[in-house]
Design goal:
Blueprint: E1 15-16, H1 17-29, E2 35-39, H2 40-43, E3 52-53, E4 63-64, E5 68-71, E6 77-83, E7 96-100, E8 112-115, E9 119-122, E10 125-128, E11 138-139, E12 150-152, H3 160-168, E13 173-177, E14 181-187, E15 191-192, E16 202-203, H4 206-216, E17 220-227, H5 231-240, E18 245-249, H6 260-267, E19 270-274, E20 276-279, E21 285-289, E22 299-304, H7 308-326, E23 335-338, E24 350-358, E25 361-364, H8 374-378, E26 381-385, E27 395-399
Parallel strand pairs: 1-20, 6-7, 14-17, 14-18, 15-16, 18-22, 20-24
Antiparallel strand pairs: 2-13, 3-12, 4-11, 5-7, 5-8, 6-10, 9-10, 19-21, 21-22, 23-27, 24-25, 24-26, 26-27
Helix pairs in contact: 1-7, 5-6
Bound molecules: ligand LQZAQKY5 and molybdate ion (MOO).
Length: 403
C-alpha cells in the first residue's frame, strides 16, 4: 500500500547564494575521511591525504644537461671514453675529458659539460671554442629538491603532473583520500530512460548529465535509480541508501507530488540549506541524513531541482563544494574574467548564466531557460552575476560546466 505523505510545507528559508556554497563546503569539511594507499595510476583524480615529500634528491646525481663532453678543469683536455645515460662513470682526472650524453651521471672530478657544438675533438685532444665555466650545463644533484623537502601540501589534487613528479622522486604508491560514495535518485513519473519523449513524457536528461559529472568531481557512484512520485518509495529509497552523498533530482518544489521535504522529515534529516537566492535553481536544498549505521559517518543529501539547468545550478552550488570538501581538496581560488559589456542581473538573486569565453570577456549564450540545456551544451563556464547585475569591465566569477 502506498504510504500517505505527511504535510510538510517546503519552508524555503532562502539564503544568499554565496552563503549556500559556503554551507556545502563546511558540511563536507566536518566529515572525517578515510585514506587509502594506492598505486600511482589508481591515485589519479584523488586528493593527497599527506604532503608529497621528496624521497630522494632530484636530480639524484650530478647530471649532464647536454650532449658533449664532461671536462675536468680548464682546456685543452685529453679525451678518453664516453659515459652514457644509466651508467656509473669512473672518476675524471684534472685535464681530462670524456664523451657524455644528456642525462648521464657526471664523472666524479668533472667540473663542467662542454656542448658538442662548442668543442672540437682532434684525435685524443679536445679544444673548446669558448671555455665552459665551472658547472656549465650540469644539473647539480638536489637542484630541484632535497630529500625530505615538501613538494606539495596535503589536499592537492592528483593530476597527471603530480603522478609524474611523484614517480620522478621515487614513489610507487600514494596515500590519498578515499572517494566519497554517491547515489543518484532521479524522481518523476513523467521521465523515461530511453527513446523519444512524447505527449506528457520527458526524457531523463539529468541521469546522463550528472553521472559522469559527479564521478569527475570525485564521487564513487554506487548507482542511479529512477524513483516514482510516491512518498513511501522515496522515503524508503532515502532510508535504504548507504551512500555518503545522496543526490536527488526533482520534487524540491511544492507541487502535488513533490515529496522530498516530507520524505526528508520522515527520515530525521536536518535541512542545512532550504532554498537559495539564485536563478535558476532556487528550490535546491542540502540536508544532513542520519548515519546508515549507529555512530557511522555523517551522510548528506543534495536535492537538485528538476528543471535541468536549475539542477546544474544546484550541482555547482551545493554538490561540487560538498564533494570537494569530502575529497579533502583545498578550496580553489576560483576563476575570474572581466565582463565586456553590462550584464543585467536579478534585483535580489544571484544569476548563473551559461557563457562562452571570448577575448573580450564572457558572452551569454541563448537558450538559457531553466528547462533548457541547449545554451549549456555550448558553454565554457557559468558566469556568476550578483544581485543587481554587473557593469562593463567588472571582475566576474566563472564556475565549471560539466566537462
Ligand atoms: N508554484 C511554484 N511552482 C514552481 C516554483 C515555485 O517557486 N512556485 N518553482 C519552479 C522552479 S524555479 C523549479 S526549478 C521547479 C522545481 O521543481 P521540482 O524540483 O519540484 O521538479 P519537478 O517538479 O519534479 O520537475 C520540474 C521540471 O523538470 C523536469 N524534470 C524533472 N526531472 C527531470 C530530468 N531528470 N530530466 C529532464 N527533465 C526533468 C520535469 O519534467 C518538470 O518539467 O519548480 C517550479 N515550480
Ligand atoms: O529555479 Mo527554477 O530554476 O528556475 O526553474
Amino acid at each position: 500500500m502506498t504510504a500517505a505523505a505527511p504535510t510538510v510545507p517546503a519552508a524555503h528559508t532562502t539564503v544568499p547564494w554565496p552563503q549556500a556554497r559556503r554551507a556545502a563546503r563546511r558540511a563536507g569539511a566536518r566529515t572525517g575521511r578515510p585514506t587509502a594507499e594506492l598505486p600511482l595510476a589508481e591515485a589519479l583524480g584523488r586528493t593527497l591525504a599527506e604532503p608529497l615529500t621528496a624521497l630522494t634528491d632530484l636530480p639524484a646525481f650530478d647530471t649532464a644537461a647536454m650532449d658533449g663532453w664532461a671536462v675536468a678543469g680548464p682546456g685543452p683536455w685529453r679525451l678518453a671514453g664516453r659515459v652514457l645515460a644509466g651508467r656509473t662513470p669512473p672518476p675524471l682526472a684534472d685535464g681530462w675529458a670524456t664523451g657524455i650524453a644528456t642525462g648521464a651521471q657526471l664523472p666524479p672530478g668533472a667540473t663542467a659539460v662542454l656542448r658538442r657544438e662548442h668543442g672540437e675533438a682532434r684525435g685524443e685532444v679536445l679544444r673548446a671554442l669558448g671555455d665552459p665555466g665551472p658547472g656549465q650545463d650540469v644539473r647539480p644533484r638536489g637542484q630541484e629538491c632535497r630529500r625530505g623537502e615538501q613538494l606539495l601540501p596535503a589536499g592537492s589534487a592528483v593530476g597527471p603532473a603530480v603522478l609524474g613528479l611523484a614517480a620522478a622522486c621515487g614513489y610507487d604508491r600514494l596515500t590519498v583520500r578515499r572517494r566519497p560514495t554517491a547515489e543518484l535518485l532521479v524522481l518523476g513519473d513523467e521521465l523515461c530512460g530511453s527513446g523519444l519523449p512524447g505527449p506528457g513524457r520527458v526524457r531523463d536528461a539529468l541521469g546522463p548529465l550528472l553521472e559522469p559529472w559527479l564521478t569527475a568531481a570525485g564521487a564513487e557512484l554506487l548507482g542511479r535509480r529512477a524513483v516514482r512520485d510516491d512518498f513511501g518509495l522515496l522515503r524508503d529509497a532515502l532510508l535504504g541508501s548507504t551512500a555518503e552523498v545522496v543526490v536527488t533530482t526533482g520534487a524540491t518544489a511544492a507541487g502535488p507530488v513533490d515529496f522530498l521535504h516530507a520524505a526528508l522529515a520522515e527520515t530525521g534529516a536536518r535541512l542545512l540549506v532550504d532554498g537559495v537566492a539564485v536563478r535558476p535553481g532556487h528550490p535546491m536544498l542540502l540536508a544532513e541524513l542520519p548515519p546508515s549505521t549507529p555512530g557511522g559517518p555523517a551522510r548528506h543529501l543534495v536535492g537538485l531541482p528538476g528543471n535541468p539547468l536549475a539542477a546544474v545550478a544546484g550541482t555547482v552550488t551545493l554538490a561540487l563544494p560538498l564533494l570537494d570538501a569530502l575529497s579533502g581538496r583545498q578550496p580553489s581560488p576560483g576563476r575570474y574574467a572581466r565582463t565586456a559589456g553590462d550584464l543585467p542581473g536579478h534585483p535580489t538573486q544571484t544569476r548563473l548564466l551559461p557563457v562562452r569565453l571570448t577575448e573580450d570577456g564572457p558572452l551569454p549564450l541563448a537558450f538559457d531557460g531553466p528547462a533548457m540545456l541547449r545554451g549549456l551544451a555550448l558553454a565554457e563556464a557559468l558566469a556568476v552575476i550578483p544581485p543587481g547585475g554587473l557593469p562593463a569591465r567588472s571582475r566576474i566569477e566563472l564556475l565549471p560546466v560539466p566537462a
